[in-house]
């Protein structure tokens, strides 16, 4: 799944952001791996974090907060 952003500023860190969020969610609750619907939600959230990261300069400073990612998803 892909997400469109208004303006890409820097792609540095987008993949790291996405995989970092994914792994963090798995560490918090490994049962996600056994539930396809929940796993899809985790992957969607991870991907949106990667997308948001591209809208800011840098890698670490560009990482989104949970609330920023949820807002982007309209939740």
UniProtKB/TrEMBL annotation:
Question: In the UniProt record, which is one GO cellular component term?
Answer: cytosol
Gene3D superfamilies, from UniProt?
Answer: 3.40.1190.20
* UniProt keyword terms in alphabetical order: Kinase, Transferase
Which Pfam families does the record match to this protein?
PfkB
Q: Listed GO molecular functions? A: fructokinase activity
Q: Which GO terms fall under biological process for this protein?
A: fructose metabolic process
Which parts of the sequence belong to the Carbohydrate kinase PfkB domain? Answer: 6-65
The regions listed as transmembrane in this protein's record are none
| Family membership | Belongs to the carbohydrate kinase PfkB family.
- Alphabetical list of PANTHER family matching this protein: FRUCTOKINASE-2-RELATED (PTHR43085:SF47), HEXOKINASE FAMILY MEMBER (PTHR43085)
What is this protein's record name? Answer: Carbohydrate kinase PfkB domain-containing protein
Q: Which organism is it from?
A: Brassica carinata
């Amino acid at each position: 799944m892909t997400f469109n952003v208004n303006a890409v500023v820097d792609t540095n860190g987008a993949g790291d952001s996405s995989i970092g969020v994914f792994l963090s969610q798995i560490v918090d609750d490994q049962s996600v791996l056994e539930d396809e619907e929940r796993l899809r939600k985790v992957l969607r959230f991870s991907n949106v974090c990667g997308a948001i990261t591209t809208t800011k300069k840098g890698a670490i400073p560009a990482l989104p907060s949970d609330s920023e990612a949820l807002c982007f998803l309209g939740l």
